[in-house]
Each structure stands twice: as structure tokens, then as C-alpha cells.
């Protein structure tokens, strides 16, 4: 599985991107699951039914620095 997070600013032509790659699996330990359920907020207006964890095997990233669009 790969998970990517980005932050890009078109006005300044700057930003960053990070990709974490690894195997993913469900969180089944009840204490661990309870902790995640208190810390995570779903993106949609619904209750979470499952939590999936990805452990970072490979992490890559880059930073974009501003530049002249004509060069």
C-alpha cells in the first residue's frame, strides 16, 4: 500500500510531497483500536467501522522550491 500526503501552493510554486509504502492491515487489538478511535476523525459524516494501519517500510519525499515559470 502507498499513502501520499502533499501540500502545494500554486501561487508561490512551492510545496512538498511524501509517500509511505508498506503492507497494510487491520488494527485488531482492542486497546490499540480504542486509542485510534479517539484520535482519528473520519472525513465523511459517519462512524468508523475499521482502522487500517500502514507501517513505514519505505518513505520518500521531495520539496518543491519556487521558480520562474518562464525558465
Overview of the molecule:
This protein is mostly beta strands and 71 residues long. The chain has one domain. Helices cover 14% and strands 41% of the residues. The protein has one helix at residues 30-39, and strands spanning 2-9, 14-21, 24-26, 52-54, 58-64.
How would you summarize this macromolecular structure in one to three sentences?
14% of the residues lie in helices and 41% in strands. The protein is mainly beta and 71 residues long. The chain has a three-stranded antiparallel beta sheet, with no helix packed on it. It has a two-stranded antiparallel ribbon with strand order 3-4.
Instruction: State the strand order across the main sheet.
Output: 1-2-5
Cα end-to-end separation: 36 Å
The rough form would be described as elongated
> How many domains in all?
1
Low-confidence stretches: none
Major sheet: size, sense and barrel closure? 3 strands, antiparallel
| Helical coverage, percent range | 10-25%
Strand content: 35-45%
Give the rounded overall mean pLDDT: 88
Total strands: the figure is 5
SSE ordering? EEEHEE
Number of helical segments with 4 or more residues: 1
Structural class: mainly beta
Rg calculated over all Cα atoms: 17 Å
Descriptors for this entry?
single chain, 71 residues, mainly beta, 3-stranded antiparallel beta sheet, two-stranded antiparallel sheet, 1 helix, elongated
Question: Strands, helices and their partners?
Answer:
Elements (H helix, E strand, L loop, with lengths): L1 E8 L4 E8 L2 E3 L3 H10 L12 E3 L3 E7 L7
Antiparallel strand pairs: 1-2, 2-5, 3-4
Amino acid at each position: 500500500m502507498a499513502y501520499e500526503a502533499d501540500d502545494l501552493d500554486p501561487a508561490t510554486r512551492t510545496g512538498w510531497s511524501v509517500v509511505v509504502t508498506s503492507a497494510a492491515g487491520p488494527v485488531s487489538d482492542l486497546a490499540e483500536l480504542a486509542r485510534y478511535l479517539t484520535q482519528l476523525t473520519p472525513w465523511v459524516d459517519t462512524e468508523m467501522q475499521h482502522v487500517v494501519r500502514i507501517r513505514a517500510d519505505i518513505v520518500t519525499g521531495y520539496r518543491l522550491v519556487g521558480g520562474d515559470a518562464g525558465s
